[in-house]
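anyone seen this seq b4? input:
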Amino acid sequence: TVHTGELEWEDGTKVIGLPSGVEVKIVTEGVDDVSERVDKFVKFPPGYTEPLHIHDHLHSTLVIEGEMHVHGKILKPGDFVFGGPGEQHGPFHYPVGCTVFSCGRAKKMNQIHRNPEAKRDSDLTGGH
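predicted toks r here
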């Protein structure tokens, strides 16, 4: 059992690599070595734009508060979005701000968000 109200909000830049302004509450992380699942709340401030990015894993997001604008659709509380590994997605817009509950898989928290341009550059150079 986790009392999420007792968890502290953390800087999303440090935790998941998004541009400044985002806050994150990690609910669970790495509770088993098989799924490497990470559950978290993410709070986007009003006017925030989440850039185009890619994940190395399946992920899902449930809107809790506010609005998430996704490819011409406005998602509100109770709406859900998900994507598979390697799928580029975004940018996502949060004109009135938004809090989401997000689940994903990552060996390290800094692998949650990846800039597709950076991935492409490393693929070209053979780096990781």
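The first strand starts at residue 10 and ends at 11. The first helix runs from residue 12 to 16. kinda curious what u guys think
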